[in-house]
Amino acid sequence: DYGPKTRRKLKADTLVCAMPLLNVDSLGYAPTGLSPSASGGYAEQVLVQSSLMFEVPNGLDADSAALTEPMAVALHAVRRSRIKKNEPAIVVGCGPVGLGVIIMLKAAGVKTVVASDFSPNRRRLAELCGADVLIDPKQQSPFSSWKELGLLGNVSEAINMGMG
Length: 164
Fold this sequence. Notes:
Blueprint: E1 16-18, E2 21-24, E3 28-31, E4 53-55, H1 62-65, H2 68-81, E5 89-92, H3 96-107, E6 113-116, H4 120-128, E7 133-135, H5 155-163
Parallel strand pairs: 5-6, 6-7
Antiparallel strand pairs: 1-4, 2-3
Helix pairs in contact: 2-3
């Protein structure tokens, strides 16, 4: 619902998504859940800026709508990486964003995705999302098998390989 003295552009109980920012008078914008001025991380209800909120479209359910932010971050990360389909990718951490990155990498056609997480449950989820190699960082580094996956180990190897 809306607070006092606010313009009500949507009906109460409308399912919405919002940018996780709140305009705090003296501070400017503060990230929701990461600032004492904009509390709410992991809360069931949070205060949002109405100008940064929009109705969830087309009857999308709340669980799917909750994936908007982690999937947007994942898509942005994959686009910024400029990874090529034949380059292996290493995803360190298989929480919501890491899993989204795996999904976006596979959607972009990346052939080999290495997923690393301490949690066996998260590694299983990574596999369901399309990860090709699962690594428990307690057992080995996700970076230790670079050569097997076609990655170069260091700059001198890259230079020598380029000259050979």
